[in-house]
Automatic annotation (TrEMBL):
Keywords: Cytoplasm, GTP-binding, Hydrolase, Metal-binding, Nucleotide-binding, Ribosome biogenesis, RNA-binding, rRNA-binding, Zinc
Organism: Calorimonas adulescens
Pfam families assigned to the protein according to its UniProt record, in alphabetical order: RsgA_GTPase, RsgA_N
Residue stretches in coiled coil: none
UniProt keyword Nucleotide-binding, yes or no: yes
GO CC term, one of those recorded: cytoplasm
Protein name, UniProt field: Small ribosomal subunit biogenesis GTPase RsgA
Stretches assigned to the CP-type G domain: 63-221
Residues at which GTP binds: N112, K113, I114, D115, G163, N164, S165, G166, V167, G168, K169, S170, S171
Top-level division of the source organism's lineage: Bacteria
Length: 290
């Protein structure tokens, strides 16, 4: 039976790449019985009906998966933020980083539109993330700055592009692969936020064995699948500190080494405040379950 990779999912159909050929497939009913749904990025066994159509018979073992949006076997998440227009959301950045840390998925930050940040403010805030070990790429899709370096990093990887609307994800992909012609959302003059341009999950082949997923669903992302006591481990710089209590939430507990590090400037205040905001979301969500 042919083995392939799901490169697109929409309306109950799965498009499977097998030896350079794409089959439009349905999933067999047995997956519903097993409560397992095929995901973009899955390696699968299919049964071909003809030259174009087939059925998915088996989903091979996954090395990981992203919960929302659902993508499997991800090598790296590319978190795209804009230097300007729209202004970067640090809560969003820290939300995505926490999700990746929880899932054990590498994440890099791409600061796009550096050509319109004339004061270079992006250099200051991006240092926060460089200091805690996240790779940061600086790009301008418009002027083709940094695009080659980003492309090189993504070679032989399945990567997922994440970022608020309007930060230039589609523009970057178009710059990485000329001729792709993905739709590019304009910035709304009223909200200064971008318009959505991606409606389904799809792996886009950039180079041989190099795929990028441009996905909807990364905009209003809940992380309520993370337990309140696990969240602090998703802020990697917190892990260097040992508190008096093993279940310390780093709020008002005595002997909290994390709060002490914040007060001493060893942990950046914006990261700590965003941790508290995310913790509040999780606690509220957990309270609704009981």
């Amino acid at each position: 039976m042919p083995e392939g990779k799901i490169i697109k999912a929409t309306a109950g159909f799965y498009y499977v790449l097998v030896d350079g050929k794409i089959y439009e497939c349905r999933a067999r009913g047995l997956f519903k019985l097993k409560d397992k749904t095929p995901l973009v990025g899955d390696n699968v066994i299919i049964k071909a009906i003809d030259e174009r159509d087939g059925y998915i018979l088996e989903i091979l073992d996954r090395k990981n998966r992203i919960m929302r949006p659902p993508v499997a076997n991800v090598d790296v998440v590319v978190l795209v933020a804009s230097a300007k227009a729209p202004e970067p959301s640090f809560l969003y950045i820290d939300r995505i980083l926490a999700m990746c840390e929880y899932g054990g998925i590498d994440c890099i930050i791409c600061v796009n539109k550096i050509d319109i940040d004339y004061e270079g403010e992006y250099k200051e805030w991006s240092e926060i993330y460089l200091d805690i070990g996240y790779p940061v790429f600086y790009t301008s899709a418009k002027l083709n700055i940094g695009v080659y370096e980003l492309s090189e990093y993504l070679t032989n990887k399945i990567s997922v592009f994440a970022g608020n609307s309007g930060v230039g994800k589609s523009s970057l992909l178009n710059a990485m692969r000329p001729g792709l012609k993905l739709n590019v959302g304009d910035i709304s003059s009223k909200s200064k936020k971008g318009t959505h341009t991606t409606r389904h999950i799809e792996l886009i082949k950039i180079y041989e064995n190099s795929y990028v997923a441009d996905t909807p669903g990364f905009n209003e992302l809940s992380i309520d699948f993370i337990n309140r006591y696990d969240l602090s481990s998703c802020f990697r710089e917190f892990n260097s500190y040992e508190c008096r209590f093993s279940n310390c939430l780093h709020q008002n507990e005595p002997g909290c080494s994390v709060k002490e590090a914040v007060n001493e400037g060893k942990i950046h205040i914006s990261r700590y405040l965003n941790y508290l905001k995310l913790l509040g979301e999780i606690v509220k969500s957990e309270g609704e379950l009981y």
